[in-house]
Amino acid sequence: MSHGPATQWKENKTLDKKKARLGVVMFVIYTVIYAGFILINVFDNPVMRISVGDLNVAIVYGFGLIILALVLAIIYNQICTNAEKLTEVSGKR
């Protein structure tokens, strides 16, 4: 007894490609920064013991990675939402 969707959804392959490319770019950015964290731990471990205020570099860098992931997710969501709204307004969807 399905009545179908309330609106017509048309595929927009161009927007999907842009979103995928943005996701890959952000993933590479995060991976490079995370690789720096791992490389410091492997090759120059004493650096992680350096004090930064009341904390050490390892804790600050680790929390920085978590915050960076959240910030990148918010940026990705905002860019994709704006692109979808722009596509809807221009009538290309």
TrEMBL record:
<feature type="transmembrane region" description="Helical">
    <location>
        <begin position="55"/>
        <end position="76"/>
    </location>
</feature>
<dbReference type="InterPro" id="IPR007436">
    <property type="entry name" value="DUF485"/>
</dbReference>
<keyword id="KW-0472">Membrane</keyword>
<keyword id="KW-1133">Transmembrane helix</keyword>
<keyword id="KW-0812">Transmembrane</keyword>
<protein>
    <submittedName>
        <fullName>Putative inner membrane protein involved in acetate transport</fullName>
    </submittedName>
</protein>
<dbReference type="Pfam" id="PF04341">
    <property type="entry name" value="DUF485"/>
</dbReference>
<feature type="transmembrane region" description="Helical">
    <location>
        <begin position="20"/>
        <end position="43"/>
    </location>
</feature>
